């Protein structure tokens, strides 16, 4: 089990990663829709992992 600070750090990292992937998807969409689709999928996965960690953080803070 991770500490609260480790969870917060990882949540920030995953959130930043998701935003960057969405931005990349937007940038390449007109030239390469398949790659944009892959970037969006990776962003969704990062967001899901982030949500799991947020739930874990909430459990630990109770």
Q: Largest beta sheet, briefly?
A: none
Identify low-pLDDT runs: none
Q: Which secondary-structure class do the elements indicate?
A: mainly alpha
Q: How many strands?
A: 0
Shape: elongated
Spell the H/E element sequence: HH
Number of H- or I-type helical stretches = 2
Mean pLDDT across every amino acid position = 96
Could you tell me how far the N terminus lies from the C terminus, measured between alpha carbons in angstroms? 15 Å
Q: What fraction of residues sit in β-strands?
A: under 5%
Helix content: over 70%
Cα-atom Rg, whole angstroms? 14 Å
Q: In oligomeric terms, what are we looking at? A: single chain
Keywords: Coiled coil
Coiled coil: 4-60
Descriptive overview:
The protein has helices at residues 4-28, 33-61. It has 62 residues and is mainly alpha-helical. The longest helix has 29 residues, at 33-61. The two termini are 15 Å apart.
């Amino acid at each position: 089990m991770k500490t609260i600070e480790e969870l917060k750090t990882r949540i920030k990292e995953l959130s930043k990663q998701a935003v960057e992937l969405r931005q990349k998807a937007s940038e390449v969409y007109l030239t390469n829709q398949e790659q944009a689709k892959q970037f969006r999928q990776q962003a969704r996965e990062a967001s899901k992992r982030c949500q799991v960690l947020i739930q874990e953080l909430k459990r630990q803070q109770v």
